[in-house]
């Protein structure tokens, strides 16, 4: 029986919702499986209303259609490549890796087509992927071409030895030239599909510097000490300066459907093999500059 370990971010979710999010099985089918004693939590049978807790071991018995990552020919903007790493400028709208219900048209599918020798530490559906950014966040990602390099890069991220610098346009005027947001992030207690600043969340630290102020918005350079899900978007919303055009966080009207104005512009790290200092830069994409110019004209 497949086993899923509940993480801190997933605690207090109903068991039927939890499995629906983690698998391709519908919630109604999961509820039937629970009634049929095909689902256990720590070896025990629970009701659909049971709320999972950290480190719960959830097992279920259900035969799914076997799925594999399908290589797809999708154009990649490769900034750098050697025998160990790839650095990619991810375009707007491209999901990084497959998730239940969506196994096609992702960066992982594109990478699988481009190269067959990528690391497989994170499984078939995340070839070479060491870290991720949201579908509608653009910019730089490093990809590992073998398992040894993947392990080193993952350790570097954990030790904060890979510096990721973002450019963001946020609503409102930030008066301070620099600032730090130190607030824990976890699942939103009211909407489990969103993240939020919550007392029970994991530590999260975001630094920002003002680049330019407009009539009703501010352009920021942002660096991260931690890498929580939606961290920049959640933290900027927390200080009442949500990212412009963010469809999930904040209460401002959307300009269009191109997603949040957030771009991973710079990437700095020591090459895991050559020990050379690596610096990469990706210019703001057209969708970002088009909206930015509208604010400059006001």
What's the total number of strands?
A: 14
What is the helix content? 10-25%
- CATH architecture type of the largest domain: 2-Layer Sandwich
CATH-assigned homologous superfamily of the largest domain: Pseudouridine synthase
Kindly, what is the distance between the CA atoms of the first and last residues, rounded to a whole number of angstroms?
Answer: 59 Å
- The number of domains: 3
- Strand % is 25-35%
| Cα Rg | 21 Å
Mean pLDDT: 92
Q: pLDDT below 50 for ≥5 consecutive residues: which ranges?
A: none
Counting H and I runs of at least 4 residues, what is the number of helices? 6
The dominant shape is globular
Largest sheet report: 9 strands, mixed
Task: Describe it.
The protein folds into 3 domains: 58 residues, RNA-binding S4 domain (Structural Genomics Hypothetical 15.5 Kd Protein In mrcA-pckA Intergenic Region, Chain A, Roll); 93 residues, Pseudouridine synthase; 137 residues, Pseudouridine synthase, CATH 3.30.2350. It is built from 6 helices and 14 strands. Strands 4, 5, 6, 7, 8, 11, 12, 13 and 14 form a 9-stranded mixed β-sheet that branches. Strands 1-3-2 form a 3-stranded antiparallel β-sheet. It is globular.
């Amino acid at each position: 029986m497949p086993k899923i370990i509940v993480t801190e971010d997933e605690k207090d979710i109903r068991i039927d919702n939890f499995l629906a999010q983690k698998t391709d099985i519908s919630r109604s089918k999961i509820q039937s499986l629970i009634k049929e004693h095909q689902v256990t939590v720590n070896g025990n049978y629970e009701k659909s209303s049971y709320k999972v807790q950290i480190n719960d071991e959830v097992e279920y018995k259900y035969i799914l259609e076997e799925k594999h990552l399908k290589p797809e020919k999708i154009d990649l903007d490769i900034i750098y490549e050697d025998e160990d790493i790839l650095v990619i400028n991810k375009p707007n709208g491209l999901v990084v890796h497959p998730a239940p219900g969506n196994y096609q048209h992702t960066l992982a599918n594109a990478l699988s087509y481009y190269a067959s020798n990528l690391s497989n530490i994170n499984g078939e559906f995340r070839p070479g992927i060491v870290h991720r950014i949201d579908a509608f966040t653009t910019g730089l990602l490093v990809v590992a071409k073998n398992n040894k390099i993947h392990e080193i890069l993952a350790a570097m991220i954990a030790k904060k030895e890979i510096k990721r610098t973002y450019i963001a346009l946020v609503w409102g005027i930030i008066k301070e030239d620099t600032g730090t947001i130190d607030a824990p992030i976890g699942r939103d207690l009211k909407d489990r599909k969103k993240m939020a600043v919550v007392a029970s969340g994991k530590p999260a630290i975001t630094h920002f510097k003002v680049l330019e102020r407009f009539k009703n918005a501010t352009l920021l350079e942002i660096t991260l000490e931690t890498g929580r899900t939606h961290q920049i978007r959640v933290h900027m919303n927390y200080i009442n300066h949500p990212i412009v055009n963010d469809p999930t966080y904040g209460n401002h009207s959307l300009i269009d459907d191109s997603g949040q104005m957030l771009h991973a512009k710079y990437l700095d790290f020591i090459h895991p093999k050559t020990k050379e200092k690596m610096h990469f830069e990706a210019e703001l994409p057209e969708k970002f500059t088009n909206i930015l110019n509208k604010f400059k004209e006001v």
